[in-house]
Specification:
Strand 4 (111-115) and strand 5 (118-123) form a beta hairpin. Helix 2 crosses helix 3 (51-64). The protein has helices at 8-19, 37-46, 51-64, 92-106, 146-171, 175-224, and strands at residues 66-67, 71-73, 76-86, 111-115, 118-123, 126-132, 137-144. Strands 1, 2, 3, 4, 5, 6 and 7 form a 7-stranded antiparallel sheet that branches. It starts with 7 loop residues before the first helix and ends in a 6-residue tail after the last helix. It contains 6 helices and 7 strands; from the N terminus they run H-H-H-E-E-E-H-E-E-E-E-H-H. It is an alpha+beta fold. The protein folds into 2 domains: 8-64, no CATH class; 66-230.
């Protein structure tokens, strides 16, 4: 089996986790193919970081899963997702425990569905699914802020209306009305984008934090539990 290699961003995060606040910055060799765990442990040891701490940090990084590219609308985040490879497939009871954690984390009852070997918990645009992979099982968590997309659309619509109606008023020889229309509809457009600018980044950060926590919980549950397969 090919040994996993960690990219530059993962290397930085592993050493950040391993040092837990240590400000030392180990010098990392520039290797385009990434670094193996053994290489990371050797580099860390040279910087005074115990190999066991580097290994634990690598395990923690894996437990957090991988984030997918953020879906954006006019540069603002409207969709986030994360996947994490699980140590093994959960039993029926373990899946129920995970669903209970989903409900607690997101504050929603949601709906649980099982079709064959596929399992999913969903609440509106929020989906948590268990997917088979070549190596085992993967947990996928994704959500979409559709009202954010709709509000951006409203901003575009009212912005276009402000330009159109103000141009019509100006053409009719009524510049005062043109300015009034531009101010009214233009203000609505700016307000729509302004609301999203304030709330969407905060929403995305919160969802990413929740997804990371759930990924860690799922990996820990299936790593520590010895419950037999149902």
């Amino acid at each position: 089996m090919t040994e996993r290699r960690y990219g530059d961003g993962e290397v930085r995060e592993i050493f950040s986790l391993a040092t837990t606040g240590d400000t030392r910055d180990p010098s990392l060799p520039a290797e385009s193919d990434g670094l193996t765990l053994a290489e990371l442990q050797r580099i860390g040891q040279e910087a005074g970081i115990e190999p066991a701490r580097v290994a634990r940090a690598a395990d923690l990084l894996a437990a957090r899963g991988k984030t997918a590219p953020v879906r954006r609308s006019f540069g603002m985040p409207v969709g986030v997702s994360r996947t994490v490879d699980l140590p093994r497939a959960p039993t029926d009871r373990e899946w129920e425990l995970l669903v209970a954690e989903f409900r607690t984390t997101f504050g929603a009852q949601g709906r649980m569905t099982i079709v064959g070997g596929l399992r999913e918990w969903s609440n509106g645009n929020l989906h948590v699914s268990l997917e088979p992979t070549e190596r085992g099982e993967r947990l996928r968590i994704s959500t979409l802020k559709d009202d954010g997309i709709a509000l951006n659309g409203l901003g575009v619509l009212t912005g276009g209306m402000s330009l159109l109606f103000s141009a019509m008023a100006a053409t009719a020889g009524n510049p005062t009305k043109a300015l009034a229309v531009l101010g009214a509809f233009g203000g609505m457009s700016l307000a729509s984008f302004g609301v999203n600018l304030l709330r969407l980044p905060r929403w995305a950060r919160e969802r990413e934090r929740q997804m990371e926590t759930l990924a860690e919980h799922a990996v820990r549950l299936l790593s520590e539990s010895t419950e037999p397969r149902s």
